Amino acid sequence: MSRQRLTIGTFGEIGYLKNPNVRTIARARYRDWDGKSRLVQATGDTRNSAERALKAKLAERSLFQPGGSALTPDSPFPDLVAYWLEDLELEDRLSKTTLQLCERNMRTLVLPAFEHLTLREIGVARCDHFLKQLAKQSYNRAKQARVVLRLALGLAARHEVLPRSPMDHVSRLRKPQTTPNALTPAEVNAVRAAIAYWEAGRSYSGPRPDGQLGAIIEVMLGTSARIGEVLAIRRRDIDITSATPSIRISGTIVTHRGEPTMRQDHPKTAKSRRTVAIPSFTAEAVRRRLTRLDDSSLDALLFCSREGTPLTTNNVRRQLRHVLDLAGISGVTPHMFRRTVATAINEQAGVDLAAELLGHTDPRITIQHYIRRNEMVNPVTAEMLDRVFKKAS
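^ Site-specific integrase, sequence as received from the core. Prediction below:
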């Protein structure tokens, strides 16, 4: 038996064992993921075929510590998605609603473009091109796709399936310039009038009005609360007997897939839990609504179905849109009342108070997303220019 050696790349020496009656064996020592050198060998009919087989074996060995995942760079992308969703549930950090949103965005926005690819085929250029094409259709959809793609590929990098996440180097999405839209006082009164007309039965269409829609609008206008937070208000959260009537915002309404709508015992964020002094028009609407509640328990919802169950946010949105369409008013959503309140408080007392009322931790969020820009320049400029450039008499 003869022995031949060849130095190749970083694998060190490759040794060959040759016997006329046996296939050629190529072997080399490989420095593994744990720093230890291990003997790896392959066979072939000839020296060249044995060397090719050995190189293929060495290329398949991972430099990373083996983990509990069966994922490899050659795993199909849907396998990573399943692994990522399972990991999110194990972390138990996100709410059930957020988990379902992540899954929906991944399956509807990302998977159609990546489902036939392996992980090693998903690079920076492919991710960058995908997000830019999606952004041409919708910035918001591209933003949501970017979030879940970054999370999934980031997990693959953290668990050492990929050497790095391609999402670390994609270009930033450019958000189109938008201006928060809010209602004027006249438009608010037009909405009130349309709802009152419908609730009085003068524009009857669909189920008989129960008077809740108008009260919901008054509570949104008086608290700046989100629609889900308003629908989660209980009798125990209301104080209309004090000198300063108030409502405590302490929960929200959620609808999980395959489950009945329920009250969640905390609002969107920790800062969102707050007690808000309410104006007289809201206090009056709340008093009227309380007199119509059949359930006298402290946990009874202020707004509920005839069976006492929570109203869904989608149904309230749909009902509002239907009523306003009858009146020829379009484009008004429940969230617009939140922006309307923020704009009004900003104009009266500044952005810090507006942010506090909305439950924002950062006033910049309030400015960027909730306050309608006042295009009227301070009229004092006219007086100044009169003094400087006024024509001589």
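Residues 139-158 form the longest helix (20 residues).
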